[in-house]
Amino acid sequence: MTDTLGLTALSAMIRRDLRLAMRRKSDALTPLFFFAIVVSLFPLGIGPERDTLRQIAPGVLWVAALLASMLSLNRLFEQDYADGTLEQLVLGAAPLGLLVAGKVTAHWLLSGLPLVLLAPLLALQFDLPFASLLTLAASLAIGTPVLSLIGAIGASLTVGLRGGGVLVALLVLPLYVPVLIFGAGAVTSMAAGLGADSHLSLLAAGLVLAVFFAPWATAVALRISLE
């Protein structure tokens, strides 16, 4: 019975957040426009030198994706806190960790998944080979959920604080560094012909740890923030 209640609450939270996001399409599209603009500026500024573009492509694409994913973190719990929904979720019968997992899943579907789909197209500007494009998509598909999960912890610690967006960035950026290193390293290794299995495996290990611990850490942080 408890498991059924939890799964029902999880799916309901995902659907709810997706519906709310569709009413504020500008918020959902802002990270995508930011990502596309930042990535497209580098080839224009550096020039058409193929070797240079290929060398900087993994870092540029991953840093842009990381920054784009951070743009919407401060809104993860902000609206629910403002209208009192967050307090009801904390006091409700459904496990708060599962509700947080639902919100993070919706956040990734709105901000992470579009980046995964858009990145290989934008990477064509850097003349990356097809194998590197596939590795880029795979690394982002594994890494962006980790960014959302870690970001949720930072967002929960700054709920209700003025200037919370800046504080979230300061909290989560150090934790994002390993994801950035392994994600960009996977594409670089594939481009050099060394294979990307080790980097992707480390990213996957980070995702497993984040899935198990981040929702419950976020739930604890939310309870503390609302006290």
Written description of the protein model:
The chain has 227 residues and is mainly alpha-helical. The protein contains 9 helices and no strands. α2 runs parallel beside α6 (96-123), α6 packs across α9 (197-226) and α7 runs antiparallel to α8.
The H-and-E topology, N to C, reads as HHHHHHHHH
The average pLDDT is: 86
- Supply Rg: 18 Å
Helicity range of the residues? over 70%
Low-pLDDT runs of 5+ residues are none
Class by alpha and beta content? mainly alpha
Q: Report the sheet with the most strands, covering strand number, pairing sense and barrel closure.
A: none
Strands, total number:
0
**β content, as a range?**
under 5%
Work out the helix count.
Answer: 9
Span from first to last CA?
Answer: 30 Å
Describe this structure in a few short sentences.
This protein has 227 residues and is an all-alpha fold. It has helices spanning 2-23, 25-46, 50-70, 78-82, 85-91, 96-123, 130-157, 164-191, 197-226. It is 84% helix and 0% strand.
